[in-house]
Amino acid sequence: MKRLYRSVFALVFGLQLFACSSIVENLNVDPNNPTKSTASLLLTGTEIANMATQEGMASRLTTIWSGYASGADRQWLDYYNYNVSAGIYDGDWNLVYQATNANALLTIAQATALGNRKMVAIAKILRANALATGTELWGDIPFDQAGDNAAYPNPAFEAQATVYTKLLASLEEAIADLKSGVGTVTTEDIHFGGDATKWTQVAYTLKARLLTDLKKYDEAYTAAQSGISVFANSLYAPHGNTANVNQNQYWSFLASSRTGDINAVGAYNTTLLNPASARYRGNSKTIETARFKFYYLEVGVNSPGKIEPNTTGTTGFFAQSASFPLITYQENSLTLAEAALRSGKGFATALGHLNAYRAWLNTGGNINAAYLTAGAYKYDPYVAADFAAGGIENADGITADNALLREILQERYVSFYGQHIGWNDERRTRTEAYGIKLTPNSGTQLPWRFIYPQNEINSNPSTPKPVPATFEALAIYK
User: Given a cut of 60, is residue 17 above it in pLDDT?
Assistant: First the structure.
């Protein structure tokens, strides 16, 4: 695996640095190896590129903008206060396009030539994951013309609504490819070893995510019903302990390369999970001590004496070898709960989905066993009376439906720790009465989007002008 990671990292980051048509053509031709081998390497490269896309700087930035952590020093203090420039987004844009999208398109082409529909499907899902992240963060983005530099040196940006439509269609194509049963994928798939059932469930959960972004809750519920059904089918980024090869990217940043730049002092999420906080979300049926300790160190080692994200040994959420969540059972379960309530499936159905998720948490869920000590966690089932006026989840006397919605949204927030989808939810519900209500880190406005990267602005005349600013809402949130 170490050798594989090194060779694929070279491929992925070679694509980032040298994204030109001649090198793309050379990737398709290797006289010393069969075509299938090339397609296999490209698939692995796409998977690792997508891992970097979901787990890199963009994820860290949304983490400090959505209350999971705090920027504390050097550039990250500026970023925390929304002082950002276009240049900081160059690397993440490259990961979406020159790494993931480029590798995915090459994989699709090679696998199509081989008649390997399973490999085509996996590449389509990975491409959809990366480009979905792109449009969720930037809004209008290149889609059809992205990845063919020879034909489209200045790829056109497409409206965000159009991108969503095409992403959903691509996921449907991938699902059909997987259901065809045609093709073979094994160890080149570092996530599931080619398991078609798991990839199909991942595709449906990603589809439900996009439909939730669009507030198409009835369709999101339908998709999530076919989504990730057990935790073991979740899509995670696997990691190890080899420096500069396979470490958890958060760990590399927090505990190795930029210690002290990010901590969790004052982070909103800590106040929800810390039993000592006035905002603590626990009650007679909920104890969050274990999850709080899994997520955070109260006396940090990278920011001495301050609360910080937990990078401890092999047990912390951001430990060196800890796998990172990409598309998960947690997300699918809570999408079922929220979408059921919002689409008119009824209070009881939504509560049933929430309680099913709480039952899983009550077994320990995804919390490392080191923190699951007696009395440190409890997630007993809720009943309707808990959400009635005066119940343990409705002290302020709002409607039972709204009290349940508020609890589901809060559970989604704490469960999506470290992922950009927590910021998706916060922005999606920002103008609604209930949800996660953040106070700006600086000034009077919360950020809505990433700025288009400086390299794209300089090199692609198709980039929207004027360039939308950080505080300008994306189309789907207007």
Answer: no
Q: Report d(CA 293, CA 376) in Å as an integer.
A: 9
Q: Is the pLDDT of residue 221 over 60?
A: yes
Residue type, 226: S
d(CA 39, CA 28): 8
Region 429-437 average pLDDT: 97
448 secondary structure, DSSP code: -
Alpha-carbon distance of 450 to 420, in angstroms, equals: 12
Please determine, for residue 1, whether its predicted confidence score (pLDDT) is greater than 50.
Answer: no
Phi, psi (rounded to 5 degrees) for 178:
-65, -40
Q: How far apart (Å, rounded) are the C-alpha atoms in residues 244 and 2?
A: 10
16 pLDDT more than 90: no
135 CB-contact burial (10 Å; exposed 0-12 / middle 13-18 / buried 19+): buried
Question: How far is it, in rounded angstroms, from Cα 360 to Cα 16?
Answer: 40
- 3-state secondary structure at position 422: helix
Residue-wise DSSP of 62-125: HHHHTTSSEE-SHHHHHHHTT---GGGGHHHHHIIIIIIIHHHHHHHHHHHHHT-HHHHHHHHH
Rounded Cα distance between 463 and 202, Å, is: 32
Buried b (16+ CB within 10 A) or exposed e, 368-401: beebbeeebbbbeebeeebbeeebbbbeeebebe
Helix (H, G, I), strand (E, B) or coil at 306: coil
Q: In this prediction, what percent of the chain has a pLDDT beyond 70?
A: 92
Per-residue pLDDT of 21-75, as tens digits, reads 332 334 344 433 333 448 999 999 999 999 999 999 999 999 999 999 999 999 9
The alpha carbon torsion through 80, 88, 42, 106 (nearest 10 deg) reads 120
Residue pair 46/408 in contact by the 8 Å Cβ criterion: no
Q: What DSSP assignment string belongs to 227-249?
A: S--SGGG-EEE---S-TTTT--H
The two tokens of residue 92 are 């993440």
β-bridge mates for residue 141, sequence order: 158
pLDDT for the residue numbered 23 = 28
CA distance 200 to 208: 12
Alpha-carbon torsion angle 304, 306, 310, 311, nearest 10: -20
